[in-house]
Every structure is written in C-alpha cells, then in structure tokens.
Amino acid sequence: MTSTVLITGANRGVGLALARHYHAAGWAVIGVCRSGGEEVAELREVAETLIEGIDVTRPDDVTRLQREVAGRRLDLLINNAGMLRDESLGEIDFDSIREQMEINAYAPLRVTEALLGNLGEGGKVANITSRMGSIADNDSGGRYGYRASKAALNAFGKSLAMDLKPRGIAVAQLHPGYVKTRMVNFGGLISAEEAATGIAQCIHELTLHTTGGFWHSNGEELPW
Ligand SMILES: NC(=O)c1ccc[n+]([C@@H]2O[C@H](COP(=O)([O-])OP(=O)(O)OC[C@H]3O[C@@H](n4cnc5c(N)ncnc54)[C@H](OP(=O)(O)O)[C@@H]3O)[C@@H](O)[C@H]2O)c1
User: Fold this and answer.
1) Which of 29, 83, 185, 197 is the most buried (most CB within 10 A)?
2) Are the C-beta atoms of residues 99 and 160 closer than 8 Å to each other?
3) Contact (CB, 8 A) for 40 and 16
C-alpha cells in the first residue's frame, strides 16, 4: 500500500526537496503551503494532493487543513514551515520574536494536534528544527527569536514523543544542516536535495526506541 506524507512549507526550499524525495520514492505527497499560483508550480508536479492557502499560524487555516485531510491515514507528518529573523541586543523587536514563536514553535504543535486523528500506530512526526535551538551548542549568541522558538519546538517535540509513544507514533527533531535556501540567502553548505535525503534517512531509522531524539540530517545526535 502506498505510504502518505504530509509536508508543511512544501512549496520551496527544504520542504519542496522533501516533497520531491518522497514522490520519487513512491509515496503519496500531501503538499501544504501558504502561497498559491505560480509559487507552487514545482510542488504541483510532485504532490498527489496540494492544499494551498494554509498559514500554519492561523487556527482557522489549520482547521481547514484538518477538514481537507479528514479520514486519510498519514504515515508521516513533516512540520517543515519556518522562518528566520534576527534581533539586535539593545533594539530587541519583540514582535519579531513573537512571530517566530508562532511559526516555528506553536504552529508545529498546533498542526500535529489537529492531525493526530490521521496518525495511527507506526506513524511518525518529524519536526524540522535547527541546531540553533540547541542551548548547549550556542557559542555565538544573537538570534533571540529563532533560537528560542526552535528550543521551544524541541521541548514540544520531546513531550509529543512521550505522549505519542503509547500510541505507537515516533517523533524526531531534525536539523537539516546549513542549507542553500532563501532562508539563508542561498548561502548554505549543502543543497536542499542533500538535506532532504539525510532527513528522510533519519526518519527511516526513527523507531519507538529512539523517539524524542534531536539529530542533524547527517545522522549525528545533537546536544539539547
Ligand atoms: N536553510 C537552513 O540552513 C536551515 C537551517 C536550520 C533549519 N532550517 C529549517 O528548515 C525549515 C525549512 O526552511 P528552508 O531553509 O527551506 O526555508 P525557506 O526556503 O525560507 O522556506 C520556508 C518555508 O516555510 C513556509 N512558511 C513560513 N511561514 C509560514 C506560515 N506562517 N505558514 C505556512 N508556511 C510558512 C514558507 O512559505 P512561503 O513561501 O509562503 O513563505 C516556505 O515554504 C525551517 O523550519 C527552517 O527553520 C533551515
């Protein structure tokens, strides 16, 4: 039977590369994105189902997403949509921090909760986090909103892993690497395709024994 994956932020960057990867591997891809029209042309080529106009921070949009996939079994949910901003100490923009918390932390929790009915035993949830969410690994400071929002996502992911383990659902926090996408002005070290291949391998290896972990897409376990 064909496996099904739902990916948020699937219209570009790491999300689009993941959509392409799973499509090529024979999965049915449900591509979820905020934009529509020309911006989703590439996703349209690989998505079995395309759900446009979903801003993952908006409860009404997430309710519509829930309605549109009602009754469909998801083998994998990838919470990929995210945003990166910077804040300077001395002129901290709390609206910027709040926005990143909404997108990077609250939205993945909201989407996962909304789609719990679609995830059964053997299902998996992958939260695309960042190494910048590691408190132990922070040796350069700054990025208050991004770091805090990804650290919060890691905390949410760990609780989800504990709560969903009895239901047979495994959860991973995955750092894609420093990837050449719009988020970093295409200045990364690896391609989105390479990141997607590594992420998919980590997801493949994820089990209920390893649930709740935090990994780099190259397989390295990351410190909290
Ligand atoms: N690139 C890196 O080096 C790097 C490193 C560590 C972690 N990450 C993480 O990897 C994930 C993917 O990032 P990327 O590099 O592929 O960035 P990207 O090219 O900027 O793509 C971000 C995606 O998130 C979507 N998105 C943002 N806010 C949204 C919202 N409110 N509702 C719905 N969709 C929203 C965007 O949609 P629109 O097109 O509508 O804006 C886009 O599809 C993110 O979680 C990011 O934090 C990336």
Assistant:
1) 29
2) no
3) no
Cβ < 6 A, ligand 1 pocket: 9, 11-15, 33-35, 55-57, 80-84, 103, 128, 130, 175-176, 178-179, 181-184, 188
* Residues 8-65: tens digit of each pLDDT: 999 999 999 999 999 999 999 999 999 988 889 999 999 999 999 999 999 999 999 9
Per-residue pLDDT of 97-112, as tens digits, reads: 999 999 999 999 999 9
Show the beta-strand stretches assigned E in the chain. Answer: 4-8, 28-32, 49-51, 74-79, 119-128, 170-175, 214-216
What are the domain boundaries of the chain?
Answer: 4-216
Q: How far apart are CA 150 and CA 50, in angstroms?
A: 27
Whose C-alpha lies nearest to ligand 1, atom 24?
81
**Rounded Cα gap, residues 158 and 81, in angstroms:** 19
